[in-house]
Design goal:
five-stranded parallel β-sheet; 9 helices; Arc Repressor Mutant, subunit A; alpha/beta
């Protein structure tokens, strides 16, 4: 039975979520604060399959909890719940490490579907188990993309850089996938917002720049002098898998 931790300080909402999720066959535990959730997940190392995390919590808010989990290499599938539904808030949720973001009030059927989607992912492994993972030899499959000494595993959201393996968040992976799919042509920040995050409002695009900086730290030998993920002035960003070949043309 899949185990879910619900972090919600409003008791009636927490119990409502518990009841409906248990009706779907899940085992559900409830925490009322971010501090308690972090204790259970990081210190006590309780085993849960997914986390439903409210943003507006007393003490540490949901953003801080998500950042703390990801900083500790805990990649539990995380659905963030909040009444703050501005595009800027959605992006902040993704930046903090959330895998999905559902504004309140939400439709119960949509919540159940989102939880099911998270639980179907076979990709979330603890960072401590990744260092021994080796890239698969041979031709690329539909699940991997190779460039230079790097291998991006679409299915497992892992980036192999030399002998190091990095676990990406879902949003980092979706952005890298999108850039790879558009190899050789610039994509605008607005296009990224629309196509990756499904945000079509007039949103501050600086959040995109923060994600780009993060990806450069992963894939560039010198992030301040990018060769794979370059800025196209006035347009956006372009992914270049083999910069030496491009320069030789």
């Amino acid at each position: 039975m899949k185990r879910i931790l619900v972090v919600e300080d409003e008791a009636h909402l927490a119990e409502g979520l518990r009841f409906n999720l248990e009706e779907e066959g899940y085992s559900v535990q409830v925490s009322g604060t971010g501090e308690d959730a972090l204790k259970r997940l990081l210190k006590d190392k309780e085993d849960f399959d997914a986390l439903l995390l409210d943003v507006m919590l007393p003490g540490k808010d949901g953003f801080a909890v998500a950042r703390a989990l990801r900083a500790a290499h805990n990649y539990i599938p995380l659905l963030m719940l909040t009444a703050r539904a501005r595009p800027e808030d959605v992006l902040q949720g993704f930046e903090s490490g959330a895998d999905d973001y559902l504004p309140k009030p939400f439709n119960l059927a949509i919540l159940i579907a989102r939880v099911g989607s998270l639980l179907r992912r076979k990709t979330w492994l603890h960072g401590s188990n990744l260092s021994s993972t080796k890239p698969t030899r041979g031709a690329d499959s539909s699940d991997t993309f190779r460039f230079d000494d790097k291998v991006f595993d679409f299915q497992n959201l892992r980036l192999q850089v030399g002998n190091q393996t990095l676990q990406l968040t879902l949003m980092e992976s979706e952005l890298l996938r999108y850039l790879i799919q558009n190899t050789g042509r610039p994509v605008s920040r607005k296009a990224i917002l629309a196509d990756v995050w499904n945000l079509r409002e007039d949103t501050d695009t600086r959040a995109i720049d923060n994600f780009i900086v993060r990806l450069r730290r992963y894939i560039e030998d010198k992030p301040s002098q990018p060769r794979h993920l370059i800025t196209v002035r006035g347009l956006g960003y372009e992914f270049v898998p083999f910069p030496d070949k491009k320069a030789a043309k």
